[in-house]
Amino acid sequence: MTRVDFYVLSGDDTLARQQLICKLAEKACGRAEKVFIHSHDADELAQIDQCLWDFRPMSFIGHILHAPDHLHSHTEFDPVHLSSGQPSADRTLLINLAIEVPPFFSRFERNLEIVNDNPDIKTAGRRRYRFYQQRGYPLQHHTM
Questions:
Q1: Which of 39, 40, 73, 113 is the most buried (most CB within 10 A)?
Q2: What's the whole-model pTM score?
């Protein structure tokens, strides 16, 4: 069963949220996990893509930004995929940035939900929390 971790940031700073996403992706890559960052917002994915390039001056998080209908077959060696489409079968960790629960979330060993004090993000995060809780998924809460 997929383990769901909620990371809750105080404030509504977009940059702090992006940096947390990069930090979590970097940590997962260090454990050889294959990360899928999901959002339906193309601008948000582009910002995360740029943040992964700039995150740490002396390190690099290998990643690729996919178009929703892009085939993933030749990118299996990239540790991080960013997309609004379907994940490839080799991904083990989902970082969900979408407003709703993605229909494929249960394919993953772990699902990370990043919430901050932005009213839209917070409200949607609470809905997703109830969704997972009502279905009996193991939930972890991390206050940052």
A1: 113
A2: 0.91
Measured in degrees and rounded to the nearest 5, phi and psi for residue 36 equal: -125, 115
CA angle 28, 32, 36 (to 5 degrees): 55
3-state DSSP assignment of residue 75: helix
**pLDDT, tens digit (0-9, with 9 covering 90-100), for 129-139:** 999 999 999 99
SS3 of 81-131: EEECCCCCCCCCEEEECCCCCCCCHHHCCEEEEEECCCHHHHHHHHHHHHH
Q: Which domains does the chain have, with CATH numbers?
A: 3-67+77-143 (3.40.50.10110)
CA-wise closest residue to 78 among 19, 31, 18, 34: 34
Structure tokens at 86: 């379907």
